[in-house]
Sequence to fold (789 residues):
Amino acid sequence: MTAKNPPIVLLTDFGLKDAFVGILKGVILSINPFGNIIDLSHGVRPQDLLHGGFLLSTAMGYFPSDTIFCVVVDPGVGGSRRPILIRTKNYFLVGPDNGVLWQAARKNGIEVVLHLNRTSYFLSPLSSTFHGRDIFAPVAAHLSCGLAMEKLGEPVYDPIPLDLPIPEKKGDRLILTILDIDIYGNITLNISLDELRSFVGNQFWLEAGSARISKIYETYAQAEDRQPFLLAASSGFLEIAVKKGNAAKQLGIGHWNQLVLNR
Amino acid sequence: MTAKNPPIVLLTDFGLKDAFVGILKGVILSINPFGNIIDLSHGVRPQDLLHGGFLLSTAMGYFPSDTIFCVVVDPGVGGSRRPILIRTKNYFLVGPDNGVLWQAARKNGIEVVLHLNRTSYFLSPLSSTFHGRDIFAPVAAHLSCGLAMEKLGEPVYDPIPLDLPIPEKKGDRLILTILDIDIYGNITLNISLDELRSFVGNQFWLEAGSARISKIYETYAQAEDRQPFLLAASSGFLEIAVKKGNAAKQLGIGHWNQLVLNR
Amino acid sequence: MTAKNPPIVLLTDFGLKDAFVGILKGVILSINPFGNIIDLSHGVRPQDLLHGGFLLSTAMGYFPSDTIFCVVVDPGVGGSRRPILIRTKNYFLVGPDNGVLWQAARKNGIEVVLHLNRTSYFLSPLSSTFHGRDIFAPVAAHLSCGLAMEKLGEPVYDPIPLDLPIPEKKGDRLILTILDIDIYGNITLNISLDELRSFVGNQFWLEAGSARISKIYETYAQAEDRQPFLLAASSGFLEIAVKKGNAAKQLGIGHWNQLVLNR
Fold:
């Protein structure tokens, strides 16, 4: 193993009870016996491209340069969607051209997008139902062995964009969308603390399910027990949290719900 | 690390919330500090030997030659069942002699079966409740260090067979069994597309819970939304799927249920 | 990779569906590209310090000397609790000073406790909500590169203790506490077989939900189907088990419930 053996990071919606993740790992090790395979998460909500993109763009920047991300959230497998590689400023992103790579690619800066069409680097025969196994894992493994990416396909200029919803302004109200709810029940909103401040100043209330929230704290420790509050989360987004409680359960709200911020 | 350091692939029914999986890894690294430990799945249904065997035989062939599979689905631990090593054409399979290794061993071709009875390669003292820790992980680790397998035990010729149920013919009907339901709700049947065709030709209907299914597609993309159909899955078996839906939930059927195929 | 590259073992309550675990791995690999990252478990019950400590102390001893455990169960993050490193006889334990490291540290023997306060080894800027990412993972990674621990902080002498509850004697009764329930439904009690014997001798009954248990077996194999019994578990603690069944479900009891042992 040398510094030339970048990690191959897996992000899928496969869950962990089936054999799919194990198969990806087997394919990679068959091509690169020294492959350094890292699980980012296999808990993307099934076929949820925005959620996959959110996890990827949240975690990506903590990995070393030249890390290869192999992303399989692929509801259109076997149809006309292209397999692609996006070379960003620091990383290689391999996956379907359905927008799942987009958030992360934009965040890090796109240098080139390749349509993966050199079938000699795929498994053969190529199935129409499991391109994670047949295309994305083999391509990631070949890259990790030092294969020049130009050998993998032709540049294309029209990757499918897929951005997170942005806050919607309606007079003195801002319509926010819930991006994610983590294991603790913390609710990630599609706005940063700075963006909130610039819209509402210091006085506001957020209608969130059964509650009206108007406090922002810097840490969980500062908050009162069981009172929902806002916090600048480690992801950079604003989050609704409850100390010694589960905000999502307490407020009764879920993924992609919309909330109203009033100033 | 050299090419002589084959991966040790773990497959268990331990789940991921307890310390069991971590303990296996600790034991392996204590014997082989360079051990390349790979998680296949720890989501085998508790004590379900056929399910464990199914996942193993589905994933095995994608791993490089000489991979060591350490399989712990072991309801009879502490009783009279033997610990065994099966050397197949390409792989080492380590686990209890209860049939869980059988499907994979037969698929790849059995070369020799050893009864693991050289206690010097076990942890000591040997417990009667956790042979994954005390026997299978240590044996897998010693193998990964290059130990000649002959040192681990005596050949035996009567490993416990355990095959998946096969389709049952009743006149113009074939009774099929559900082998697995994956995270997307896709339902794996115990028949391949070729086997189905040779029995029914082109005209058939499959009674599946509330539905009658008579369409086969090559990809999810070709199917109509929310209409159950058949597909040759990536595992080689036929599967019932629903595009933009969950077939198992929609049809209300579960593991080991039987379905009737009519011609 | 050399023998100087000890494994970094992760134990958290992050679960596996979010990006948190992936972020820890990215941070570690950015500091030590050869970091050998091992998942012990990410299934600690959210913010349950005793459960985290129990899993750590159960698994720790199976890992090789100098293994670095990076433990993140951290409800007080951002408050006044200190980040610490405990050097035990054989291991490095990195995590918050809230008691989660205590059981394991005491079991292996504490040599020195350091208050991690050298911010040059942290990520910058330091968040107030995710010290796993900003402090514990970076410190573990630097240790794995061979950094002398003295560079990481000052010795302190008052780490927060947090012990498992011990059996409570009330005349001829012993009040036991349930420490854990594993994936099979086996119930871990806060007493060893030897301790039980020294209190009750050979005759006893344990009131456990709907059942009175008075049998001890050495293996699952010896027990009768569906009859709850006691067993010296692989963890060293006594456990209530049901052969071909799930003891916790059958008896209707849960975590931290108390049971009465009568002699």
The interface with chain B takes residues 1, 3, 7, 9, 11, 16, 38-43, 55, 58-64, 67, 180, 182-184, 218-222, 231-235, 244 of chain C (CB under 8 Å). Residues 231 and 239 of chain C are 5 Å apart (CA to CA). The domain at 168-262 of chain C is CATH 2.40.30.90 (Elongation Factor Tu (Ef-tu); domain 3). The first strand of chain C starts at residue 8 and ends at 12.
